[in-house]
Amino acid sequence: DAGVTQSPTHLIKTRGQQVTLRCSPISGHKSVSWYQQVLGQGPQFIFQYYEKEERGRGNFPDRFSARQFPNYSSELNVNALLLGDSALYLCASSLGQGVTQYFGPGTRLLVL
Amino acid sequence: GENVEQHPSTLSVQEGDSAVIKCTYSDSASNYFPWYKQELGKGPQLIIDIRSNVGEKKDQRIAVTLNKTAKHFSLHITETQPEDSAVYFCAAHYPNFGNEKLTFGTGTRLTIIP
């Protein structure tokens, strides 16, 4: 069975640009969460979406936004990129009723 | 909010020996505690989890114990093998926000010495 998939795998942007990251959950999973993982640290919660509605938002600025589509895939958008946004962005999916989350391979974003 | 502390940050173990990683959490209402293994260049892989109504759970060479009174939980890996080398993260879920947010520890880099 296919796990969580994310695209692209790597991305290089310059300061001030905008980026869109994509995630497809495990088949049958209705919840998608986004996490940011800075090198050497644990993942930090950004958003959770369940049935296309935002269920939670972490301590991130409004430059970060996300949405979930009818097929439960999701996009994370980051505007006005800063050097500090360089990180591994992880998507995790779950059934939405039990918390158990499975992570994708991540998108590594480098902001120059 | 929830805070999770993880120790040690690095751990080297001789192949075949056991490894133990410990985490403490701050909010007594936390009810779910997963452990993830992350290999270089990959996303975190769920290896075992435990809920607050259970004190111990085992899956082959991996076990997790939970002490709710002391608010700490531990990962035990027995008969370690070279492929166990990775970074391990503990996490906790605090249910009162109505979402699935996991709060992670800072990770333990485990190295198995052949």
Topology:
The complex is a heterodimer of chains A (112) and B (114).
Chain A: E1 5-7, E2 10-13, E3 19-24, E4 31-37, E5 44-50, E6 53-57, E7 64-68, E8 74-78, E9 87-94, E10 102-103, E11 107-111
Parallel strand pairs in A: 2-11
Antiparallel strand pairs in A: 1-3, 3-8, 4-5, 4-9, 5-6, 7-8, 9-10, 9-11
Chain B: E1 4-7, E2 10-14, E3 19-25, E4 32-38, E5 45-51, E6 56-59, E7 62-67, E8 72-77, E9 86-93, E10 102-104, E11 108-113
Parallel strand pairs in B: 2-11
Antiparallel strand pairs in B: 1-3, 3-8, 4-5, 4-9, 6-7, 7-8, 9-10, 9-11
Describe this structure in words.
The complex is a heterodimer of chains A (112) and B (114). Chain A is mostly beta strands. Chain A has no helices and eleven strands. In chain A, the strands form two sheets. In chain A, strands 2, 4, 5, 6, 9, 10 and 11 form a seven-stranded mixed beta sheet that branches. In chain A, strands 1-3-8-7 form a four-stranded antiparallel beta sheet, with no helix packed on it. In chain A, a hairpin with a 7-residue loop joins strand 9 (87-94) and strand 10. Chain B is mainly beta and 114 residues long. The A-B interface holds A 4, 31, 33, 35, 40-45, 48, 55-56, 58, 90, 94, 96, 99-106 and B 4, 6, 32, 34, 36, 42-46, 49, 89, 91, 93, 97-107.
Nearest-integer average pLDDT of chain A: 95
Termini gap of chain B: 41 Å
The description of the largest β-sheet of chain B is: 6 strands, mixed
- Strand fraction of chain B: over 45%
What is the strand content of chain A? over 45%
Order of helices and strands of chain A: EEEEEEEEEEE
Rg of chain B, Å, rounded? 14 Å
Task: Quickly count the helices of chain B.
Answer: 0
**Helicity level of chain B, as a percent range?**
under 10%
**What's the N-to-C terminus distance of chain A?**
37 Å
Q: In terms of structural class, how would the helical and strand content of chain A be classed? A: mainly beta
Low-confidence stretches of chain A: none
How would the global form of chain A be characterised? Answer: globular
Shape of chain B: globular
